[in-house]
Amino acid sequence: MSRLFMFEKPLGMRDTLPDLYETKNLVRTKIEQEMKNWGYQFIGTPTLEYYETVGAASAILNGQLFKLLDKQGHALVLRPDMTAPIARVAASRLLNENLPLRLAYSENVFRAQQREGGRPAEFEQIGVECIGDETVSADGEVIALMTSSLKKIGINNFQISIGHIGFVQDLFTQIVGTKERANSLTQFLYEKNFVGYREHVEGLSLSSIDKGRLLDFLKLQGGSEVMDEALLLVEDEKGKEAIQQLKQLWEIIVDYGEEANIKFDLTLVSHMSYYTGILFEVYADQVGFPIGNGGRYDLLFEKFGKETAATGFALTLDKLIEATGNIVSSRPDHCILFSEERRQEAFLLAKDIRATGKKVIVQDINGVKNIDACTSQFDDVTFLVGSKGRVGQ
C-alpha cells in the first residue's frame, strides 16, 4: 500500500465520525417523520444508474458526473441527484389516474469536484417530489412542508427566496429576441454577477427603454409588492401568467401561516435546467450557501416517455447540521468495568440499564490501560471487580 494514499480520501469525499453520524441520524429522523406526517412515502433508488437515462436527465454538468462502465460496456453514473431517478421510477411503475404521487427520499448523491475548495463530492439529500399535480397548491405545499421540516429540527432563522424561471426566460426573450441571447443574461444571474449583468446590458444594441427594463428587473426583490412591479416590465400573456402564479402562491403560503420567512426574488435562476416554473432556495443564518432548493419541473418526465407535472425540494443534510449549530454526543451514558469472576453480573446489570433506554459499555477491566482516562469519558461508571459486594460508582 502506498504511504501517500494510506490515510487520504478521493477528492471531495469525507469521513463521518461518531458524533456527526449521530447528529445526522437525529436530524434525518425528525425530518423523515414530518414528511411522513404530510403523507409522503419514502422510496429508494440504485446508487448506479445508466448515463443515457438518469445521467442525461439530471441536468448536472457532464464534468461533475462520476462515470464508469459495466461488463457489457454500458456507461453508468453514480446518481448525481434524486429527482431524475425518482422520475424514472414514477414514469415506469407508479404513475396512474389516482391522486398525485407524494414521494420522499433520503439518499447520498455524487458530484465530482474540480478542486473547488472543500466542497463535498458525496453528500446526503433529503427531500420530496409531488408528481402529477399541476396546480400552484402543490408548489405551496412543498414550500410549507420544507418550512415545517426546518422548524422541526430547530432552524427558525431562515429565508426562502422564491422566483419563477418562466418569467425570467420570457422577459429576456421578449427583449433580446433569441433564447441564446437570453441565456447569456441568465448566466450572469446564476453567477450572482450583477455588475457583469449591468455592463452586458449597457453594451446591447437595444433602445434605452428596453435597457431600462432589463436594469429594473434587478430590483424585483422583496415582499409581495414585487409582483405588481414585475407586471410593469412584462408585456405578453405568458409572462403575466407567471406573475399570477406567484401571486396565487403568496396567498397559499399566507393561508399556511408561513409568510414570515418568504422573500420574492425574481432574479433567481438555477443550474438545474429542468426547472420550468416556480423555483426557490432556502438560506439560514451563518451558512454561506443555500441549505436547500426546489421548484417545478413539468417537462422532465418527457425524457422517460410520460407527460406529467411535478414539483419538489431537496435539503442538504450537512448544511442543515451547520445551520443548527449543534453536534450531539454519541458517547455512551454508562460504563461497567468488570473482572472475570463478576462477568455475568456485569452483563445482567447492563441489560437492566439498557432497558431504561441508556447506552451502556461493558468492559473487561484487564483491557483498560488507563482507568482514570477511561472513566472520565462517562457520566456513570460502575466497578464490578473482585468478590461480590465491592461495587463502586
Largest sheet: 9 strands, mixed
Unreliable stretches:
none
Structural class: alpha+beta
The strand order across the widest sheet is 1-5-6-12-11-10-7-9-8
- β-strand number: 16
Query: Mean pLDDT, rounded to whole units?
Result: 90
Helix run count: 13
Shape: elongated
Strand content: 15-25%
Radius of gyration: 27 Å
Oligomer: single chain
Please provide the ordered H/E string of secondary-structure elements: HEEHEEHEEHEHHHHEHHEEEEHEHEHEE
Distance between the termini: 46 Å
Question: In percent, how helical is the residue content?
Answer: 25-40%
Your description of this structure?
With 393 residues, the protein is an alpha+beta fold. The chain has 13 helices and 16 strands. The chain has helices at residues 18-37, 51-57, 83-94, 136-152, 165-176, 179-190, 194-202, 208-217, 226-231, 237-256, 317-324, 343-354, 371-375; strands at residues 41-42, 48-50, 67-69, 75-78, 101-110, 122-131, 158-164, 221-222, 262-265, 278-284, 292-296, 310-316, 334-338, 360-364, 380-384, 391-392. The strands form three sheets. Strands 1-5-6-12-11-10-7-9-8 form a nine-stranded mixed beta sheet, sandwiched between helices. α1 (18-37) packs across α4 (136-152), α4 (136-152) packs across α10 and α5 packs across α6. The longest helix is centred in the N-terminal third of the chain and has 20 residues, at 18-37. The protein starts with 17 loop residues before the first helix and ends with a strand.
